[in-house]
Every structure is written in structure tokens, then in C-alpha cells.
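User: Please predict the structure of the protein below. I'd like the answer in C-alpha cell form so I can feed it into my own downstream comparison script.

Assistant: Understood. Taking the following sequence of 330 residues as input:
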Amino acid sequence: MIIGLTGKNGSGKGVVADYLKKAGYIYYSLSDMIREEIKRVGQEVNRENLIAMGRKLREDGGPSVLADKVLDLLDIDKNYIVDSVRNPFEVRALKRRKDFYLFCVEADQKVRFERTKERARENDPTDFETFVTLEEKELNSTDPAAQQLVATAALADFIIDNSSTLEDVQKRTKEILLELVKKNTRPDWDTYFMNIAQNVSLRSNCLKRKVAAIIVKDKRIISTGYNGTPRGVKNCSDGGCPRCASFAPSGTGLHDCLCSHAEENAIVQAAYHGVSIKEATLYCTFSPCLTCTKMILNSGIREVVYNANYPLGDVALRLIEEAGLQLRKM
């Protein structure tokens, strides 16, 4: 899960961030990325330079550049905080991840001013009038490269009022997290196994197509396979298969192909290690070819689940149906 934090200066985003960090969330700040760039060019880190450098980075790399950079750092299996989201384009970029939620932290303006005075960070204004004047510049800009705090807050999924006590803020944050945990459903078994098969396909070195198959029994993976040259033969990507290396048109020269198919390798690997695959389910990123279909039928596999149609697979699919093998396309 990714929690984005936005809010006006002094709203107390750090309080929410600290609570999430203690809960095990990994912290990133878009403002810290700007600070690093300011230091790199030898400028003083202050509020005016932060705003100016943020605008420059967005002008040079696009309005979502900071969010794009942080997305490259995030794994799918961890929880994160992305602090200091200040531009609607950053929100839209982060929302490419379905597990992203934006929290807007709010507090009364005078409360926020007192907080900025207490922290005395990066030349924060020390009088209320200057504080208000600077804030007005940040709130309603129409420049896509500038901070747009009002437009960003309008995209928030949840509002957290931080005008009262620390306990109230933590309580509200906890309530939201519990709500989100209930919303985030786990993938079903088909999706789970097909996602694993798609990752297995990345091991393929075939120059034509990356395909993978996994064999599952009692919701346990018992064999995997991906397409490629046989054991002991030079890899396809190193010239091991003349047909693939010639980039022959799809469907031609198949008798010259030295690569074993993913389904074939999964079945053979099970045999090599003495693992029974009778009554198992085979998940494959492509529907099987005719040769692999015959192997599947004779191996005792009871079900085939596939993701995409193999270009020459019509005969194979009819054979599977005739033999009474369970067949499903995701």
C-alpha cells in the first residue's frame, strides 16, 4: 500500500508520517528529492529555493517527474509513505498504482503558522502576514509546473484534521488504515498463479516469444518451465536456435526450431525430479500447441488455464475439448 501525504505548510503531515513509519511504512519525500537537487547545484536550502527548484524540475521533466522518480523505487510487496505531494499531476501518476491513497492533512491557518515558527525550518516566515502571503502563492497556481495545493487536496481520498491532539490524529489515521486493509482484497488463486507464470516467463531467453507454464496441485506449485533450448545446448539468445536467430516469420520453419516449449519443460522437469503431476492444473501464459497438448493429455493433467491464444493453437484447443480436459482462458 502507498499512502501519499499532502497538506498546507505546517498542517502536520510529519505527525501522520511518523505514525505510519512506526507501523512499518517506508518513507519517501518528494520535497527531499528537491532538497537533494538544490544541494547538488550548490544553493541554499530554503523555502523559496524549494519552490523554485520544484518548478524547474517539473518544467524540465514534466509535471509528474517527482512522482515518476519515486514510483521507480517502490516494490509491489511493501508499504510506503510518499510525503509532500503538491501537484495534481503527481497524484495522477501515483494513482497508476491501484494501492495508492492520498491523505490530506488539514489544520487551522493560525495553528499552522505557530507550528512553522516552532520548527524554524528553512527560513520559514516568522510573522503571520508573510506566512499568509507566501501561502497564497502556493495554493491556486494554474502553472502545471508549480505547486497547486488546493487542486491537489481536491484529489484526496481521505481528510485528516490535525487541529487538535496528537491522539486524535493517530486515532483517525488508524481508522483509515483499518478501512483500507479491508478494501484491499488478495488476488484469487487463478490470478496468483498466472502472475507467477508471467514472472517465470522472464527467465526465457527465446528471441521469438517468452512463454512460461507452471503446474499446480493442491494449490502448491510442483513444477515450472519456460521456453528455450534443451539442457546443455547454447541459449537461444546466444545463437543456440538457428530458426529463432533468423527471425523467421511466425508459423514458418517450425521443424528447425530447437527450443522446447514451456509446457513441455514443466512436464519434463516434473518427470526429471520424480514428481507426479496426475490430476494437476497447468497455468500457461499462452495456450498450448498441438505437441504440448498431446503431452498434457498423456501426463494426466486435469485442467489447463491460459492467458493468451497461441497463434497456431486452434487444433490443440479442439483436441483438449474432445478429450474432456478442463480448459479455461483468463
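That's the full C-alpha cell string. The chain has a mean pLDDT of 89.
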